[in-house]
Specification:
By secondary structure, the chain is α/β, with parallel strands linked by helices. The chain is built from 15 helices and 13 strands. 39% of the residues lie in helices and 14% in strands. β8, α9 and β9 form a beta-alpha-beta unit.
Length: 420
């Protein structure tokens, strides 16, 4: 079985949960002896782990013949398009991409991030996907998140192979319902054209069915999982015998993640437990607002902003924590609580998160219920028996949530769409 996957990020260069999930799922699927995965990303950096898959950098795929003078091409593009110089331009879904992003090797240039011209990069990615679709061997196409749906659709149009799209989040999650029409249109088009839709939780599945008007029989939930801890991570020392108790928020500081509820709950906890410390690890467009909110609540001396963290840094902060909190307003899944529980950190999550569907040994509260959140924080740092119970049982639980099992479920979906 050969799968052609389109993604946007891949460890160690990640900016969110999409890259972590892409890595875990592909590694879990690769445990099937006959599974071969080709994974495309806009711009690889050269240090990605390719021991279990093949990575194609979309930025390295020429879309014009290498012997063409690119200065000549740019000069003439405004007047006409010579079909002899391009790979089947007539088949491209979008004809309005900018050739100023074509370098002297005839390849598209990509930032490898989420730039201001993101929609343009998505469009250009879909065009290069047409070249990849003609040159690679595969049985099924798998597109991860809305950024790659146009690429998946183009590959399907060219090859006739079935398309599976993977919904890691929707714009309803990111915007608290104030959706971007352009993003919604791309999401809806991808869902309509896909042969099957995978969602990371039943919460997301319901959004896909109700908000994007998809046939329930076409949508399957496959929950995310967590990678086993590496020896390097296991070697990180826990905090022991420290009087101050550390309660941590780790994630993007954005509207979706509910950081303001964490701050308000922190203020309530500190009124009863002045020895507590709070960490907000991450970055995002609400960072300045949160700093001002912390100052207004007069808890700045007990509150720490670390900025964006990744890789080993994430586990260092988790292992230094006594409690982990994810107060997301709308979280399609949320891998970070699983990572915290792996490290033996008692965890509080919002009921509005996908991972709440599979975790029994995390405390669940409504994101808006600041009183309940504060009570849970205070109880864990105050009662050692409660802390130990959640620590031990939580770790046992997540150690049995494996990407290998998720990969087996994806394989069954592949077989289903191929047999139609």
């Amino acid at each position: 079985m050969k799968a052609l996957m389109f993604g946007w990020e891949f460890p160690p260069h990640i900016l969110g949960g999409l890259g972590t999930a892409s890595y875990g799922l592909t590694k879990g699927m690769a445990m099937q002896p006959d599974m071969k995965i080709t994974f495309c990303i806009p711009k690889p950096w050269g240090d990605e782990d390719q021991s279990f898959l093949k990575i194609i950098g979309v930025c390295n795929v020429p879309i014009v013949w290498r012997d063409v003078d690119m200065n000549y091409v740019r000069e003439r593009l405004g007047k006409y398009m010579d079909p002899q110089k391009y790979y089947d331009y007539r088949d491209h879904i979008y004809a309005d991409f900018s050739y100023r992003h074509v370098n002297d090797l005839g390849c598209m240039e990509f930032s490898g991030r989420y730039p201001g011209n993101l929609l343009e990069e998505i469009n250009n990615y879909s065009i290069v996907a047409g070249v990849i679709a003609r040159t690679e061997q595969y049985d099924v196409i798998h597109a991860h998140d809305w950024l790659t749906y146009p690429a998946g659709m183009h590959a399907k149009n060219i090859s006739g192979k079935p398309l599976v799209i993977h919904v890691h989040a929707t714009d309803y999650d990111r915007s608290r319902g104030n959706v971007n029409p352009s993003v919604y249109a791309i999401e809806k088009d991808g869902m309509d054209k896909a042969d099957h839709i995978l969602t990371v939780s039943n919460l997301t599945r319901l959004t896909v069915i109700e908000k994007y008007h998809q046939d329930p029989s076409k949508v399957t939930t496959i929950h995310n999982a967590v990678e086993p801890l590496s020896p390097e991570i296991l070697a990180i020392q826990d905090r022991k015998g420290v009087k101050d108790k550390i309660i941590t928020f780790l994630g993007r500081i954005t509207m979706q993640k509910g950081p303001e509820y964490f701050v308000e709950a922190a203020a309530k906890v500190l009124s009863k437990a002045p020895y507590a410390r709070f960490v907000m690890a991450g970055s995002g467009d609400m960072m300045d607002k949160m700093i001002r909110l912390v100052a207004s609540r007069k808890i700045s001396d007990r509150f720490h902003f670390t900025g964006f963290m990744k890789g080993k840094q994430v586990y260092e902060i988790l292992k230094a924590s006594d409690v982990y909190v994810m107060p997301s307003v709308s979280e399609p899944f949320g891998i970070s609580p699983l990572e915290a529980m792996q490290c033996g950190v008692p965890t509080i999550i919002s009921k509005q998160s996908g991972c709440a569907e599979i975790l029994d040994y995390a405390i669940k509260v409504d994101f808006w219920d600041i009183e309940a959140m504060a009570d849970a924080m205070y109880s864990i740092i105050t009662y050692p028996a409660m802390h130990e119970f959640l620590q031990v049982e939580g770790k046992k639980e997540v150690d049995n949530i494996k990407w290998e099992y998720a990969g087996q479920k994806v394989r069954r979906i592949y077989e289903q769409v191929m047999n139609k």
